[in-house]
Amino acid sequence: LPLGERLKRRIVDGERKGLEADLDEALTERPALEIINDTLLDGMKVVGELFGSGQMQLPFVLQSAEVMKTAVAYLEPHMEKADDGGKGRIVLATVKGDVHDIGKNLVDIILSNNGYDVVNIGIKQPITAILDAAEQHKADAIGMSGLLVKSTVIMKENLQEMAARGVAQRWPVLLGGAALTRAYVEDDLRSTYEGQVHYARDAFEGLSLMDRVMV
Ligand code: B1M
Q: What residue stretches are annotated with the B12-binding N-terminal domain (predicted)?
């Protein structure tokens, strides 16, 4: 198989052996971010389709996710650091009840490499923990990730909780994750919320939103 196909296959098959050698070879051809975006994420997409259609069982999805994480960790030091920090601080979390963190961690990498201080508090985080972290770290913004349909409801509840606590105007909120849609965030959530809430389709939109929010 050609290198790109081989790497994609590794994600789909959850095959770690020889991964680093393939990544080293890919790095001689393309920048790290391009390898992630154009190849590895394609592999994860296939995993999602296979899982969704019942052709792949959960333990194998987990293996694929582990290979994806290993690959991203291996590539991270090779990424260009465009900016050294000081552009603002964001608390990032995957919402309550949700364990998916590959997307959130990519957002962390992209923002960190582009001048933001990221306080990544992990998965399954209730809004109380998110707000405590935002307070404690004097964050300028809050980012919530969630991939389950259920998580889109949690995000709505989280915004309601922020409004109830009177902190809606204090932190602009960025939302992202596969189950969210732009319409849900920009029409539904935004219409009832007095603070800033933004939808980010991917990590790069997350970055451009932060650049807009922080001016
Ligand atoms: Co799960 N899972 N999973 N899973 N999983 C999905 C999400 C699912 C769509 C698969 C499917 O059915 N086709 C489905 C959800 C269905 C639904 O809710 N309607 C699903 C399910 C059902 C489940 C379980 C319930 C399965 C079970 O237990 N029976 C379970 C849930 C457990 C829980 O959360 N309580 C579960 C578990 C798992 C694993 C642990 C095996 C593993 C996660 C490992 C990990 O993350 N450490 C896993 C995986 C890997 C997936 C799929 C296959 C891939 C997700 C992924 O990493 N994609 C996923 C299929 C899919 O998403 N279509 C699926 C790559 C990643 C880069 O994309 O996170 O979307 P993503 O991030 C993107 C953008 O969304 C955006 O930027 C990234 C790209 O640049 N983004 C942000 C994300 N967050 C952002 C935040 C921002 C800005 C942008 O600002 C704050």
A: 1-87
